[in-house]
Amino acid sequence: GSPRRLLLVSNSTLRGGGYLGHCQQHIQGFLGERVRRVLFVPYALHDRDAYARRARERFESLGYGLDSIHESCDPVEAVRKSEAIFVGGGNTFRLLKALYDNSLIEEIRKRVLEDGIPYVGSSAGTNVATISINTTNDMPIVYPPSLQALGLVPFNINPHYLDPDPKSTHMGETREERILQYHEEPNTPPVLGLREGAMLLVEGDKATLQGVTGARLFMRGKKPTEHEPGTDFSFLLTEA
């Protein structure tokens, strides 16, 4: 089986808690004691210094050192030497463009899929772990050379998945309608809608829904299905 280990979190901050507060125990359990330092990828936000300070503060409170890739003179070498990678949220297009610009797509793929180093993604960092960023919620403020992403899993995720509000007077498409429109295109992969507070743990060929909220799964040509924390999504890793 694959040595890949991923923790794909829907959101960095949950209402009533601090940065990564709702998932800090999951991160600690996932990284364990063998990881000493984490390589942070802050490319999704413009102010990378401030973002790195914020992430460093949180990870140091959990007992891990943190190096930000934007501070490295050789980003590729930083990935090659990393013990674990954390890719933060922000704008998915900005993040993916920077990964291409810095020649990091293949390097991160190799480190995660072949060397088995842990990968933590939050929001945009979860988006880029999938096949493509076609199902991101973000505006295309910059233009990456491709919408194809890291492909660490063979399906797509929609972080921050929102259910329709029955009281809303908004007449635009719901998130579900937008995903169904995506599936009107041929050969489109499954999309896992992760609500705020949900995360997907992938260990080799096993995938499990974790967190405090559920997820909605969209398979092309099928009705969407509802899933609770604890759901085994391993079939998505093989069937997709």
Automatic annotation (TrEMBL):
Function: Hydrolyzes dipeptides containing N-terminal aspartate residues.
Record's keyword terms, sorted: Cytoplasm, Dipeptidase, Hydrolase, Protease, Serine protease
Protein encoded by which gene: Aada
Keyword Cytoplasm listed: yes
UniProt-listed Gene3D superfamilies: 3.40.50.880
Location relative to the cell: Cytoplasm
Entry keyword annotation includes Hydrolase: yes
NCBIfam families: PRK05282.1 (NF003642)
Source organism per UniProt: Nothoprocta pentlandii
Entry EC no(s): 3.4.13.21
UniProt xrefs under InterPro entries: Class_I_gatase-like, Peptidase_S51
GO cellular component: cytoplasm
CDD domains found in the cross-reference section: GAT1_Peptidase_E
Protein name per the record: dipeptidase E
Family under the similarity heading: Belongs to the peptidase S51 family.
Biological processes per GO annotation: proteolysis
Catalytic activity: Dipeptidase E catalyzes the hydrolysis of dipeptides Asp-|-Xaa. It does not act on peptides with N-terminal Glu, Asn or Gln, nor does it cleave isoaspartyl peptides
